[in-house]
Design brief:
With about 290 residues, the protein is mainly alpha-helical. It has helices at about 5-20, 30-40, 45-55, 55-65, 80-85, 90-100, 105-135, 140-145, 150-160, 160-170, 175-185, 185-195, 200-210, 220, 225-240, 255-260, 265-280, 280-285.
């Protein structure tokens, strides 16, 4: 069998599994309950609130977002009902789907998923800072796009479990190539399939798929389209470069400077955003 054909067939089979994740036995029970609610056209915000409230880990994460520095409520949001009012149904829906994927009873995966949740939260926060500074897009959309930018890593773990942890290792150079070799697709592709399958905004799906290679959309970004791809890419760089353990995961675009310029940023303004992010460290530490 032709190797390219075999790879495409493997990729298509994986895509079908991702889109059909609601039927997988390996996904967290809370996610199943969330999906049951959001897929039911007769469900209301109160139905979703009830599901979130029943899972302490999920409720904690949703409240963390509502109380995050970029929303500015400083710990004053005490209930999921309040969060739903502040964030809106669609944001709570998307958050509930996304963060419930991070739950696990597998001790081996706990460190990986907790670290990835923190990284995703930090990227989300910096994405919102960049959206605010540049005026390109709404802060809440930028936050969500950053939060789910690496959701494909979690999905690959939910499907393949320890096999994915072995392939991922400590990240490092070549992780995207290792994912393709092992599973037929990168975590970016997998995350985009998931977002499309569960009706996230199209811009979120595109950002997930392309935030590691924004240069592919550089001309569109320059013309004012798809700014979230650039903002999440830059946020990922800002967050990752501060951490020695994850710095090896930084994927710097060959058009890095041009991407900054396309969203009206320069090294000085990037440094200012980096300083804002570091000032948020204490509030983020209190969450984790």
């Amino acid at each position: 069998m032709d190797s390219a054909y075999a790879l495409n067939e493997e990729k298509e089979l994986l895509r079908e599994r991702v889109v059909g994740m609601a039927n997988l036995s390996t996904i967290p029970i809370t996610l199943k309950h969330v999906l049951e609610v959001v897929e039911n056209e007769n469900s209301s915000t109160s139905d979703l609130v009830k599901v979130v409230e029943q899972d302490q880990s999920l409720a904690t994460k949703v409240l963390a977002v509502a109380n995050s520095a970029f929303y500015g409520y400083g710990g004053r949001v005490k209930s999921i009902s309040q969060a739903a009012v502040i964030l809106g149904f669609n944001m709570v829906r998307n958050l509930a789907i996304s963060v419930s994927l991070f739950d696990t009873t597998d001790k081996k995966a706990a460190k990986f998923l907790t670290g990835l949740w923190r990284h995703s939260f930090e990227v989300a926060s910096v994405s919102a800072l960049l959206a605010d500074r540049t005026g390109l897009g709404r802060k809440d959309n930028a936050f969500l796009a950053g939060l789910i930018s690496d959701i494909g890593r979690v999905i690959l773990y939910q499907i393949f479990e320890s096999e994915y942890l072995d392939v991922y290792g400590d990240g490092g150079e070549g992780v995207l190539e290792r994912e393709v070799a092992a599973f037929g697709a990168t975590h970016s592709e997998v995350g985009a399939w998931f977002a499309e399958g569960f009706r996230f905004q199209k811009e979120c799906s595109l950002t997930i798929e392309e935030h590691h290679c924004p240069e592919k959309l550089l001309s569109s970004i320059r013309s004012g389209s798809h700014p979230l791809v650039a903002l999440v890419y830059l946020a990922d760089v800002i967050v990752s470069e501060q951490k020695s353990g994850s710095a090896v995961d930084i994927i710097i675009s060959p058009e890095h400077d041009a991407i900054m310029e396309a969203v009206y940023l320069d090294p000085e303004s990037m440094a200012e955003v980096r300083a804002e992010y570091l000032e948020m460290a204490n509030s983020i530490n209190s969450i984790f």
